[in-house]
Amino acid sequence: MGFILKLFKSRFFVISLAVALLLSIVPGVLCAMGQGSYIRSAIVTAASPFSWAFTKVGEGITGFSLYFKTLEELRDENAALRAELEGYKSLVYDAELIKEENEFYSNYLGIKEEHIDFLFENATVVGREATNYRTVVTLSKGSLHGIEVNMPVITEEGLIGHITEVGSTWSKAEILTESSSAVGAYIERSGTLGVVEGTYELRTEGFCRMVYIEADADIRVGDKVLSSGIGEVYPRGLLIGKVTEVSRDERTRTLVATVEPAADLGSISKVMIITEYEITSLRGE
Residue 223: CB partners within 8 Å, gap ≥ 6? Predict the structure, then answer.
């Protein structure tokens, strides 16, 4: 009760009551006097800032709505474009694969025409084991495909090595530059004979060497080195590489040639395994 009495006596209550009476009495009086238009004008004038504010808010809401709608459309369009781009990338990738396959088989046919006695089995490199002492590659073909130990492995560029281990669906090939590798060889230009072997020192640089070359042999930097067919592993005429350096071994009084393999032994992906060939050599063996 005391609170209500204090409220009635407060200045805020008195002012609010006076304003309310004015707002209720003045419009009535003005209307009775035929001045209602002033009331409407005053109300419109007083309300115009609020009307403007509500209009802008409405426009803003509409703008935001259109913005989010446009953003959603752009997202959908970007997603569609990304999907289309991925499709084109896939087509380009497939085209590159087909091109590589065509080049591989074209070179394959070239080798086949040059060595009509060769029978091949194509294989893909599916693994690579590289240590400080030995490097071998795992191939996708094995005994089920007729692969056997000691079969030569080549690419369209040249000799890779030979098969050292065989499973039912896989095989392993030792690389030409390994210290345990040896290939009877000759110089294409002069017919000079020797043996290409791997060494621990040169294998880290990707090279091998040709040894047992007579001291007066005709051999030069840039000469092509081919397999001679001497031995039981490699047929005659496989490109091994080229001579990059010739030196003299004073201990044995023979020449030693450093040989750079023709095939890129560090990036092998597809190979051909020679499964059968006629045994011939420069010595008629």
Answer: 187, 188, 189, 190, 242, 243
Q: What per-residue confidence (pLDDT) applies to 47? A: 45
Residue 250: exposure state from Cβ atoms within 10 A (0-12, 13-18, ≥19): exposed
What is the torsion angle, in degrees rounded to the nearest 10, for the CA atoms of residue 155, residue 160, residue 161 and residue 165? -70
Looking at the structure, give the CATH architecture of the domain made up of residues 119-276. Answer: Beta Barrel (2.40)
Provide the terminal-to-terminal Cα distance of the chain, rounded to the nearest Å.
Answer: 132
pLDDT along the chain (285 residues), means of 10: 52 56 54 52 51 54 57 75 70 55 59 77 87 80 95 92 95 91 95 94 91 95 95 90 94 94 87 85 51
Of 100, 160, 154, the C-alpha closest to 136 is 160
Give kind and range of the element (H or E) at residue 136: strand 135-139
Q: Which residues contact 221 (CB under 8 A, 6 or more apart)?
A: 243, 244, 245, 246
The residues pairing with 171 across neighbouring beta strands, listed in sequence order, are 139, 166
> CA 74 to CA 82: how far, in whole Å?
12
pTM above 0.85, yes or no: no
- Residue ranges per structural domain of the chain: 17-114, 119-276
Count other Cβ atoms within 10 Å, centred on residue 99.
10
- Sorted by sequence, the CB contacts under 8 Å of residue 217 that are 6+ apart come out as 187, 190, 192, 194, 255
Angle at 235 between CA 183 and CA 195, to 5 degrees: 20
Please tell me the distance from the alpha carbon of residue 201 to that of residue 179, in angstroms, as a whole number.
9
